[in-house]
Structure formats: structure tokens, C-alpha cells
Amino acid sequence: xxxxxxxxxxxxxxxxxxxxxxxxxxxxxxxxxxxxxxxxxxxxxxxxxxxxxxxxxxxxxxxxxxxxxxxxxxxxxxxxx
Length: 81
Hints:
- With 81 residues, the chain is mostly helical.
- Helices cover 81% and strands 0% of the residues.
- Helix 1 (3-18) runs antiparallel to helix 2 and helix 2 runs antiparallel to helix 3.
């Protein structure tokens, strides 16, 4: 369940940094748009994991801390990428 968002996150972070070195504005804008799409997809999958986790785990220790860390990770990756 986590592998897809992890791979997508690594790819869009690298692609967003690589876009800085592209000379053609059209290609650069296409790469940047693709990174936003990948970020949205990975974030949606991570939010889905949070919803599933909250629904399925009622007696897990540090339940809210785990949820908060995932949401913080989404925000950090949005700023970093």
C-alpha cells in the first residue's frame, strides 16, 4: 500500500529539481506539471492510508501521532518538492 506513493514521491522530488536545469520552457513546464500531478496522487494515497488506519486501528498506541506525522510529511514534501 505504501510502495506506490514512496516511489512517486522520490520521482517527483528528483524531477522537480531536474526541471531547474531544463532549457526549454515548454519541457520544463510539462515536467513541473507532472510533478504536481504525482504529488497530488501520492498525497491522496497517503490520506487514504490515514483514513484506513483510523478506521481499522482503535487501540493502537500513538494513533494520533502517526496520523499527524503522515500529514506533516505531506506538507513537508509539498514545500520541499
